[in-house]
Structure formats: C-alpha cells, structure tokens
Amino acid sequence: MDVSMEKIVTLCKTRGFIFPGSDIYGGLANSWDYGPLGVELKNNIKQAWWKKFVTSRLDMVGIDAALLMNPKVWEASGHLATFTDPLVECKNCHERYRADQIDLKKACQKCGNKDTFTEPSSFNLMLKTWLGPKEDATATVYFRPETAQAMFVDFPLVMTSSRKRVPFGIAQIGKAFRNEITPGNFIFRQREFEQMEIEYFIHPSDWEKQFETWLAAMHEWIVECGITTSAIHDLEVPKDELAHYSKRTVDIEYDFPFGKKELYGLAYRTDFDLTNHGKASGKEILYTDPETNEKYVPHVIEPSFGVDRTLLAVLTSAYHEEAVEDETRVVMKFPKHLAPVKVAVLPLSKKDELANVAYPLAEQLAKRWRTDYDETQSIGKRYRRQDEIGTPFCVTVDFETLEDKAVTVRDRDTMKQERVPLAELENYLSKQLGC
Ligand code: GAP
User: Fold this and answer.
1) Which residue owns the Cα nearest ligand 1 atom 6?
2) Consecutive H or E run containing 21
3) φ, ψ dihedrals at 326, nearest 5°
4) pLDDT tens column, 144-161
C-alpha cells in the first residue's frame, strides 16, 4: 500500500526504529540514530546480505577496512578532482542549493528573491579531517565517500592471502560520508550512511554476461527483502551522465513515498580503479591466469547497495493498514528473517502464577531469537503493539497453561491462533521462522 513519509517517520520515532540524532540538543541537521528496533532490523539486513553474497559463495570474500585511507587513494580514484556536485548560492539569503535539483529561473525557495543565484561552482563532497596534532594540508585526510576503494587497494593482498582466482569478488559493509549539499527525505540522503558493496573481478571479455548475472542477483535480493517489486524500476544511465569510472550503469530505482529515486546501482567500472592505483602507487596490479599464463588487469563489476535506503524500502513495503472489526490495525509485514523481534511472550495477566511460567519461557526463547516480554495493558492492545513493530509470533501464557502445559501462538499476518504444547514450542517456532 502507499504510505506517507509522515506515518513512517512517526512510527519510527514512537516505536524506536529511528530517532533524530542529538535530539535533546535540538538535533544535528539530517543526522539520525537507529534505536533498539532499528538496529535489529539493520543488523538483520546486513547479516542476510553478508550470508547471501559472501559466506554462502565460494567465489566471494569479505574485508573490513579503515574508514580513513591514505589521501593518495582519492587522488588516484578521481574523487579529489571529480566527486563534486554543482553548487549555487542565493545572493540575497545565502541559502545553498544543488544546481541540478532546482529550476535556476525560479525564485529562491527560502527568501523568494528572483534572478538571485550565483553561477554554479563545483563543490567536492568529501568530508575532511586531520590526522595527528597538526591541522594543516600535510595532515589532511578524507572520510571515505564509498567503501569501494579499499577493495581495490587491498586487491593484491586479498588475492594472494585467500588464493582466489578470477572471477572472484571482495565485499564490504561499512560507513561512508558525503558532505551532501541537500540531504533530506529522512534517511534517504544523509551525510553519514552505510553501504554494502561488492567489487567483482573478471576477465574483460566476460563483462556483459557478469553484468546481467549481477543485475539478476540484485533483483533476487530485493524480493528476499520483501520490497514491493512493482515499485522497482531499472534505469539505464545515459552515457553522458555516467560516473567518471563507469562504462555502463543501471540504477535500480524504487517508488519511495517522495517519488521514484535510486535504491541501488550496478556499474561496470572496467579496469579504471586497479589501473589508476597501479600507476599512482608504482605497484602495477596484474593478475596472471594460472592456466593460460595471460597477464591482465582484472575488470570490475560493482553492485552497490545502500543499507539505509534498503531499510527505508523495507519499512515502506512492509507497512500495512487493515480494517479489523471497527479499528485500523497497523502491521509491519517484514519478511520473518528481517523482523527486529521474532517472538513476544505475553502473560494474560500480571499475576505471579503466570509470570513464573512466562518470564523463564521468554528468557529461554531469547537465547535463540530476539524476544519481547510484555505484561502491561489488555492482550488486544499488546497484539496491536507487536503488529506495529512486525513481530511474527505472539505467545500467550494463560491460566490454562498451568493445567495443560500449552500456550497460544498468534500469527502476525493471519491473526490465527493455535494451541502449542510448551514442550514443542521451540520446534514449532523454528519451523515457522525458518531459523
Ligand atoms: N561505489 C559506488 C557508489 O558509491 P553511489 O551510487 O554513489 O555509488 C551507492 O552509491 C549506493 O549508496 C546508492 O545506490 C545508495 O543506495 C547509497 N547512497 C549513496 N549516497 C547516499 C546518501 N547520501 N545517503 C544514503 N545512501 C546513499
């Protein structure tokens, strides 16, 4: 269903998925903190991605590189020269805009002045800091604007230590930083965000086939995340709009509540990065095919996934409102493996006799799955609360439990209830949850 950003942002704040960063100080522009449920959802997304694309494949390995790299990396990668957005400033109120995101013939959105913008200038998006006690040019370093470059720079060490043969890939999940001129739309465009990236090293003659294979794998992932597939669109990026390193890029777009925007990107980066790092470092990066003895610089297919954009697409796809009796039930229909809480234990009353069974049961289940324990308010209200955070199963302990040693298990999606013996509960949940 279509959902407004307002509903998603409110649910995220009230239920503990995502909060404004530094909230008690009035926030910090466009910074967001993941709360108790948000961090579980985000971790589940990252773990599912790592399992699908790294640990379950023999042709993939992972790394976790430093955020700050030698500044020569960004010279060789082209980021210092070309990782820029066109910036204009209103001469009257000094508000700054991305020139490609506004109509320069129209009035300034902030002060209403017309014919007011400066000529566009190139604004580099990399965030700078200093390493060590000197704050000068010799100590300047950049927070990485993409996780990708470490996979190129580490390529020789990864290849020799893991003894991989082309085709193979290196993956990484981690933070990236961009001094975006106009961040916004909640967690869609941030200055500090997370990426899940793969650099897949291939023989140049193989690139078209590999590109299609990776595009299909990215679509498979989208389905596994429960993202509405009818809201997904592939955009073949026109030649004159390609990034400086790319020979072909397909952007996978999603119909976010604020419009159709980029969710992921798939690029054919050729040998651009390995060749440039080879030249700039003076250490040529070559691969020798063990069978043919052919020496060549591997080419690269790069599937790039934003963690935060995945989470936003998962949230907006999972959101459902359903009429139940005279009420509207809000239910987050997360795929079970992504749900932040897998099971909630709800004693029917606060009486000790029930808590004595229910609390140890919750502790036992928590050893396997993220488990919630809730004994306040009516059972109906507690079910609604769990629906709103997308908990697949609620386990109710009632007075009959004391006699028949069984509990009622309620399914989030069907709302059907089933009596399950306590002795079989773990097996039952494990089968239903698939984990
Ligand atoms: N290594 C290639 C690369 O970084 P990109 O299209 O600039 O390509 C890849 O970024 C992905 O990172 C995007 O598809 C998006 O999911 C995510 N992303 C990029 N900028 C972002 C931002 N400012 N905030 C949140 N996510 C962002």
Assistant:
1) 265
2) none
3) -100, 15
4) 999 999 999 999 999 999
Nearest CA to ligand 1 atom 12: 306
C-alpha to C-alpha distance for 226 and 74, rounded to whole angstroms: 36
Higher pLDDT pick, 394 / 134: 394
Q: Which CATH class is domain 341-433?
A: alpha beta
Distance 303 CA to ligand 1 centre (A): 11
Q: Where are the domains of the chain?
A: 5-83+125-316, 84-122, 341-433
Separation of CA 306 and ligand 1 centre (Å): 6
Distance of CA 332 to CAs 83, 318, 390, Å?
38, 5, 4
CA–CA dist 72, 66 (Å, integer): 15
Let me know: does 253 contact 262? Beta carbons within 8 Å: yes
Residue 21 has pLDDT above 90, yes or no: yes
Could you give the CA distance from residue 385 to residue 116 in angstroms, rounded to a whole number? 50
- Ligand 1 atom at shortest distance from the alpha carbon of 148: 1
Residue pair 245/269 in contact by the 8 Å Cβ criterion: yes
Strand partners, 173: 196
Residue 33 has pLDDT above 80, yes or no: yes
Mean pLDDT, residues 369-396: 97
Residue 309 CA, closest ligand 1 atom number: 16
Tell me which fold the domain 5-83+125-316 belongs to: BirA Bifunctional Protein; domain 2 (3.30.930)
Nearby residues of 330 by Cβ (< 8 Å), 6 or more positions away: 11, 319, 320, 321, 384, 387, 388
User: Would you say residue 40 has pLDDT above 90?
Assistant: yes
Q: What is the pLDDT of residues 350-362, one digit of tens each?
A: 999 999 999 999 9
Q: How far is the CA of 126 from the centre of ligand 1 (A)?
A: 13
Ligand 1 cavity residues, CB under 6 Å: 146, 148, 178, 180, 189-190, 193, 195, 197, 262-265, 302, 304, 306, 308-309
Q: Is the pLDDT at 1 greater than 80, yes or no?
A: no
Length of the chain: 435
Q: How far apart are CA 156 and CA 228, in angstroms?
A: 39
Residue nearest to ligand 1 atom 18, measured at CA: 306
Decide if 5-83+125-316 and 341-433 have a common fold. no
Residue 432, both tokens? 């239903």
